[in-house]
Structure formats: structure tokens, C-alpha cells
Specification:
The chain is 37% helix and 17% strand. By secondary structure, it is of the alpha+beta class. Strands 1, 2, 3, 4, 5, 6, 9, 10 and 11 form a nine-stranded antiparallel sheet that branches. Helix 2 packs antiparallel against helix 4, helix 2 crosses helix 12 and helix 7 runs antiparallel to helix 8.
Length: 424
């Protein structure tokens, strides 16, 4: 009997060995596949030639978020996507992204647009179609080159830094408040009395000359539509005819509805249905503020500039600044040890990621490669899914009701080319 027991134990151990071998093979295969995809995608990214454009705004701009929503809807059609195994596995093609940036330097606000060079003409045309009075020109140099290339050097120059990334707290199908909530219901856009950009413009205008704030919107067109699965479940649940209903005795009688949807639920349902029909983007919002240590005030970004985004939160969807994605470290938070060193490497990572316009990696190999081991990991980035309407609410050309004469270099008139039919 003991002999049989030993034989069964040996047989069981043999099966455990095979399970271990299979798990090791699966892990090795997954890592190899991820490494291959990361290598090919890196090659694709390095072949993209980038251009940095500055958006110069006239003194009178009456067109607001509604016009910018149409810009994003047009830009969405410039997207590219993988088509076949060659583009996926050999070319490493990924969706090209672009960056919209609000820069506060020396009490002056500037707007920049960074995009692949081959898309300059259609991209600019989309802007001019909606904002004919603005002027877009290629920047002489990248503004980030005015500052040290690494956080270590920035710190050695006597500066301190605070930075964060913003995520969505709930399912991406839910919608934040948008400009529709405060735009005039009738008449043209000249009847506007509010502009959501006013708060961030005012904050930058009140900064000291030595303080610097950067806000970056990294935007990738959504080509997968994977979020629609969750949206469909939410809609079906809210539309259920038996929501909050009870059946008769025995469960055989028809359900009787005990309540109807509230006005808030109807509004939520309408917002989700509207979002399903709009162009959507995966958006990473990254913010950085730095100043000499003597005047450094992290609340200027942590509560002030972040509040410009957070003001659009509602009961359905809220913007969130997780501790793992901002330069805040406490001794009682994971992983609990070396809080000062973890804070340092968070600052290194955020400063580096902003300068590189880093878009979160999809592959595990890419996440490992971009981590600052052993104390900072690149596994916690979570881009938001925003519709063109939501995105236009967060970023649009400031209108004439924003008092920005002091904080912006506005152009007095737009330069136009000579007519093509002039005699030679």
C-alpha cells in the first residue's frame, strides 16, 4: 500500500513538472512575441519625421469649442491602422499620434502642435477651415531645448519639479461635462459668455517669471472600438424594461416595472449614445510644473492647473490623478520602502516622458524597457478615451472673452499669400 502511495506521489510530481515546463514555455513565448513586436514598433516610430508647429491666435476669436470639435472630427480621418500580417509583424505599424501642448514660460502662454511631417498640410487645412483667422507656422526650435535634458541636471540648477498624469475613474463609455453644458442654446457663437480655457490662462498669467508650466495632450485615434462592448452593456442595462421590477407569485407572471429612469439616468444614457457616434481618441494628459526651490509651489499645478481639467467631472465620469502617476510618494504607500528615492525616480520619469512626448507602450517588453528600474515602473499608464466633443472642451483656441492680452502674444492680422492669378 505504501508502495502504491509513493507511485501516485511520483506520478503527481511528474505531472507538476509538465505543468511547470508548459508554463515556462508559454512565458518565454509570450516574452519573445512581445519583444519582437516592441522591436518592430520602435523601428516604425523612429522612421516618423516630426514637426513642431506654433499656433498664433488673433486678437478677436469668436469661434470656440464647437469649431474645435469639427477640427478633431476631420483629424480623426487622417488615422492609419494595421492592415494584414506584414504591417503588423514586419513593419510594426501603429496608429500615428499627435501632441497638443499648452506652454507657460515667463508669464506667456503659447500653443504648440507636434505631428508627423507628412500630415502637416491636411492637419493645418483642418484648422484653417474652422479658424480662418489663426496663423500656424513651424517653430524655429523646440521650446523644451531651452531647459536641461534630464531632471538630474534641472535639479542641479536649483529647480524643483512636480508632475502628474490624468486618468478616467470609471468606464470610458461614460462622458464628462462638455461645452454643450455652457454654450448658448440659440444664436451664433458670438453670444458666448463663458470659455473653459479662461482658468488655465489666468493661472499661467499670474505665475512668476521664473515659474514654468507645461500641459501636454497626447492623442491617438481609436481604431479598435473595443470600448463599445462595455458601452453596449451599460446601455442595455439602463434600457432594460425590467429594471427595478418584480415578478408575480411563482415567477410566471409578467414583470411589473416599479420605477422609471430618472432625469439623470436619461441624461447619462443620451451622453453614452451620442459618444458612440462620435470620433474618439485615446488621450494621455501629462502636466509638469517646475520653479526655483525658493518659490516652488506644487499646488499651482496639483490643484490649480489640474482643476482646469477636473472642473468637467460629474457623477458619471471623474478625472483622477493616481499616486502612481504623479510625483507624490508617502512611506505608507506601495511598495513602502525608499520613499525619497522613489520620488526622485518618479520625477526623472515624468520629466523624461514629457520631453519625449512618450505614448504609453502596449507591449510588455516596451513597458519593461521604458521603466526606470528598480524603483519606477512603466506599467501604470492608462490613456483616457475621449470623444471629439470632450477633447474640444479641454483644448480649443481661446476666444475673445478670455482676457489674454498680457499672457499671450496675439497677432494683429493674418498673413495671406498673394492671389494666384496676378500677372507676372
Amino acid at each position: 500500500m505504501i508502495t502504491n502511495f509513493i507511485q501516485h506521489v511520483q506520478l503527481f510530481i511528474g505531472w507538476i513538472d509538465w505543468v511547470f515546463y508548459f508554463a515556462a514555455f508559454a512565458a518565454a513565448f509570450g516574452l519573445a512575441r512581445s519583444s519582437w513586436m516592441f522591436w518592430r514598433q520602435q523601428g516604425y516610430k523612429q522612421r516618423i519625421q516630426w514637426a513642431l508647429l506654433e499656433i498664433q491666435i488673433p486678437r478677436e476669436t469668436t469661434r470656440g469649442p464647437k469649431a474645435m470639435e469639427q477640427v478633431f472630427a476631420s483629424v480623426f480621418n487622417l488615422r492609419n491602422e494595421q492592415n494584414g500580417p506584414k504591417e503588423t509583424w514586419l513593419d510594426g505599424e501603429i496608429s500615428r499620434w499627435f501632441s497638443l501642448e499648452i506652454v507657460g514660460i515667463n508669464k506667456v502662454t503659447k500653443f504648440y502642435l507636434r505631428l508627423p511631417r507628412l500630415l502637416i498640410h491636411p492637419f493645418i487645412s483642418s484648422f484653417y477651415a474652422q479658424y480662418p483667422d489663426i496663423e500656424i507656422k513651424e517653430a524655429d526650435y523646440d521650446y523644451i531645448d531651452d531647459f536641461p535634458p534630464t531632471y538630474q541636471e534641472l535639479r542641479a540648477d536649483g529647480y524643483e519639479l512636480y508632475g502628474l498624469e490624468i486618468t478616467q475613474k470609471n468606464d470610458p463609455a461614460y462622458v464628462v461635462n462638455t461645452y454643450i453644458e455652457f454654450e448658448p442654446k440659440v444664436g451664433d457663437e458670438k453670444g458666448r459668455i463663458l470659455d473653459s480655457m479662461a482658468s488655465i490662462m489666468e493661472i499661467i498669467g499670474k505665475m512668476k517669471p521664473e515659474e514654468t508650466a507645461w500641459v501636454q495632450f497626447l492623442i491617438v485615434p481609436d481604431v479598435s472600438n473595443s470600448w463599445l462592448v462595455g458601452a453596449k452593456k451599460i446601455v442595455e442595462k439602463m434600457k432594460s424594461s425590467t429594471q427595478g421590477a418584480e415578478h408575480g407569485k411563482g415567477g410566471n407572471e409578467p414583470a411589473i416595472r416599479l420605477r422609471f429612469r430618472t432625469q439623470g439616468e436619461d441624461k447619462t444614457l443620451k451622453r453614452i449614445e451620442d459618444k458612440k457616434g462620435k470620433a474618439c481618441f485615446y488621450v494621455t494628459i501629462r502636466m509638469i510644473y517646475f520653479a526655483p526651490r525658493g518659490i516652488w509651489n506644487q499646488d499651482l499645478l496639483n490643484r490649480g492647473i489640474y482643476g482646469y481639467v477636473a472642473q468637467f467631472s460629474n457623477d458619471d465620469q471623474r478625472f483622477h490623478k493616481p499616486n502612481l502617476l504623479r510625483t507624490k510618494v508617502e512611506w505608507d504607500s506601495f511598495p513602502y520602502f525608499f520613499p525619497k528615492r522613489r520620488l526622485f525616480w518618479k520625477q526623472v520619469a515624468l520629466y523624461d516622458e514629457y520631453r519625449r512626448r512618450f505614448v504609453p507602450e502596449e507591449t510588455w517588453a516596451g513597458k519593461i524597457y521604458n521603466s526606470h528600474l528598480p524603483l519606477n515602473y512603466c506599467f501604470f499608464h492608462k490613456p483616457m478615451l475621449l470623444s471629439a466633443e470632450e477633447l474640444a472642451t479641454l483644448f480649443h483656441i481661446p476666444t475673445n472673452i478670455v482676457m489674454t492680452q498680457v499672457t499671450m502674444n496675439r497677432i494683429e492680422s493674418k498673413r495671406l499669400p498673394a492671389p494666384s492669378n496676378l500677372p507676372k
